[in-house]
Structure formats: C-alpha cells, structure tokens
Amino acid sequence: MDTKSLATLLVAMALLATACASSPDTQGDGTTSSSTAESSSTASPSSTAASSTSGAESDGSAPVPAGPSALTDPRSDAFPDALVPIDEIISGGPPPDGIPPIDAPVFIDVVQADDLLEGAESVVALEINGDARAYPVRVMIWHEIVNDTVGGFPVSVTYCPLCNSAVSYGREVNGVETTFGTSGRLFASALVMYDRLTESLWTHFDGRAVVGVLAGTQLDPVASPLMAWEDFAAAYPEGRVLDWTRTGHSRDYGRNPYVGYDDAETEPFLFRGVVDDRERAKQRVVGITVDDASVAYSMALLADGDGSATPVTIGGRELVILWKPGQASALDASTVEGGQDVGSVGVFVPEVDGSSVTLVAQGGQFIDSETGSTWTIAGIAVDGPLEGSNLERVEHLDTFWFAWSTYRPETLLVEE
Questions:
Q1: Cβ atoms within 10 A of the Cβ of 46, count?
Q2: In which residue ranges of the chain is pLDDT below 50?
Q3: Most C-beta atoms within 10 A of its C-beta, which of 163, 261, 274, 312?
Q4: Would you call 305 exposed, middle or buried from its count of C-beta atoms within 10 A (0-12, 13-18, 19+)?
Q5: pLDDT at residue number 416
Q6: CB neighbours (10 Å) of residue 415?
Q7: What are phi and psi for residue 264, nearest 5 degrees?
C-alpha cells in the first residue's frame, strides 16, 4: 500500500473511531451529563434524519420554510437551487450525528481545568458579553459541534479536524433558534452540518445553507480563535471550560485519532477538487476576510521567534496579526497536547478609543509604542496606562490552504 492510500485509510479509521461510543448516555466512569449542576441549556435536538420538516413561527421578517429533509432527499424538486454540486457532498463514513454533537454542555472553572490541561493544549476560545468559554480541542476533535448559549446568545461552536478550522455561528434562522448536528457528509474535505429545524445542509467553513429549503441562508459568524490553554487561562481567569468528563459520551479524550494529519507534505482526506497550486494543500494559513477582500497569510511568514506583530491592510481596513508560540497542534502526535508548536494567532483592529496603537512583540507579549502598555494574544492590555482595555477582535481562521482557497478562490496569498 502506498503512502497516500495508507494515509487515507488511517483518516477513515479515525472518522469511524469518533463515531463509536460504549454508551450514548454515560461516561466510562458511569456518570451522566446530568450529574453536575453547571450546564448550558440548548434546544432539544429533533430526531435525526426525519423524512420532512414543518414550518416554524419566526420573529423575523421571513418565515422558516417547510419541506423535505436534505439529509434523506437532497435532490428534492422542492428545494431552491443547490449552492454547490450535490455530487461533491460525499459520505465521510459515519451517519448523521454518528459523530455526536454536544447539546447540553457542562462547564468547570479555570482553576479546576488548570489542574487537568497542559498549557500548550489547544482550545477554541469564545467570549460574548463578558462570558468567556474554552472548548478544548480534546473534546471538539471527537464531537465537532457544541450547541451552547454564551452571554445570552445562542451559538454553535464548530471544529473540523480535516480542514483544521474552528468557526462559531449564531444558531438562529430567521429569528428562530435551532441546533446543529453533524450530517456525516463532507464537502471539499470539510464538515457539513445540518440544522434541526429544517434539516438543510450547511458548510461549516462559511456558515451557508447549501442544500435544502434554507439554501442561500447565511449564519452570523462569531470570532472563536484557537489558542493555547495557558493563554486562555491568563486572559480569562473567570472563564469557564467545557467539561470533557460529562459530555454524555465515552471517548478517549486527549488522544488524537488523526495522528500525522498535520503534515504539509500529505494530501487532504476525500478532497475531490483541484488544490490551488500557489501553496501546498495542507500548509497552515491565517485567513481573513474584510467585506469582499480575502487574504491568506502563510503561518511560516508569521511564526517568528518569541512572537510577531504584523500590520496589514485588508479591504481598506488597518489590522494587526499577532502570533506567539506555545500552542500544540492537535493533529500531529498521538496526543492533542503532544504535537508540534504551531503558536496562537489573534487578529485585531489596533485602536483604543479612536486612537491607533502600534504593537511590537516582546517576550511572548506585545508592547504598544504609544504608551508602553503590555498586551496579550487575546488583545487585552494587562499592564501600563491602557490596562484593562480590549482591542476589537476580527474574525479569522487558522486553517489549511486547500480549505481556505476552495471557499475563498479569489483570495490573495501572502508568503513573504
């Protein structure tokens, strides 16, 4: 068996492993997800793969349409035109919700989690209205979606290991709250979700409904970067952390089922398109879109010593990209904390109260030239005259080149 075939087989086995559980309701230690009090309540999921959906009342200007399920009848004549070729939406192995989303997440505080997580371990960081939460990739790699309510805002936190991307969205459609599940399908080697309101299919990477009664609908993105656990804990000491011991499922949390996948010399799993040959398919990039302008920055450009602060202009908007070392790749070694150091990235508008600040990397932190204040990778000033100030975060994606260039084919690529 050649190297490419072996890699494909290993990833297929990893996907099937994420779908296997000893019990859907209990942990390996026998506890259940209801055994702790601090949980986030989300809407109850509907039956998976229902044959049809019914209309729902909306507090928005447009009603939520009724129609067949795109899970079972993606070619129905009742649907608007699909936004992507249906033949290119292919099975990844597991059935719908075979990789089970977490619909009743339970949280612990930072102090508790700090005794359990390694500092370099990767987490998805989300902060809304002062409510900061970390979703460890040791959980996301096995579940891919968490339906949560953060700062009073219903949100779906999603992670696709095959394209190495974490993206979050408001989970309301035409003013109606819903939850999202894993469809078991892939498009361009990336997670395809489905909403439990109409069972339309959505691409995780850009939050669009691409097949079904909601085709053409766009979810509102919420910035949720990947960062090292120690950086989250330092930035948000009062934050909360998804408890992987009370997910309602039994998984080998902490193990990476995709060993060796973060290798720029290998090919993406079940990718049926043509990779933009400006860069290797699995080169890590930082993708940023402002209005209609998209730019990908090679991680090799940004990763520099003990940190970098790179000023950029995208769509006429001045931004700064911060990078610091310390985050382990979850897709490299046999454990999520044991991978190569890929660092953490933050993208911000470098302004405080209307005045520009110029950030310079120094010792794993960032100093602004105007006041000498010290800033973290989370865009928070922790010392100096601006202590307590926050930079406006700009949504970005840490991802592989093949994924970014597929969904943003007009993108510029900056490598030097």
A1: 17
A2: 1, 3-7, 9-10, 13, 22-37, 41, 43-52
A3: 163
A4: exposed
A5: 82
A6: 12
A7: -65, -15
pLDDT in the model for residue 254: 97
CA distance linking residue 142 with residue 251, whole number of Å:
7
Sequence-ordered strand ranges (E) for 197-307? 201-203, 208-211, 221-222, 226-228, 240-242, 284-290, 293-298
Q: How far apart are CA 117 and CA 345, in angstroms?
A: 20
Asked if residues 199 and 96 have their Cβ atoms less than 8 Å apart, the reply is no
Q: Are strands 122-128 and 226-228 parallel, antiparallel or unpaired?
A: antiparallel
- DSSP letters for 187-213: ETTEEEEEETTT--EEETTTTEEEEST
Q: Contact 110/238 with Cβ under 8 angstroms? A: yes
Phi, psi of 82 (to 5 degrees): -65, 145
Q: Which residues pair with 392 in a beta bridge?
A: 349
CA 234 to chain centre: 21
pLDDT the model gives residue 20: 56
Predicted pLDDT of residue 36: 35
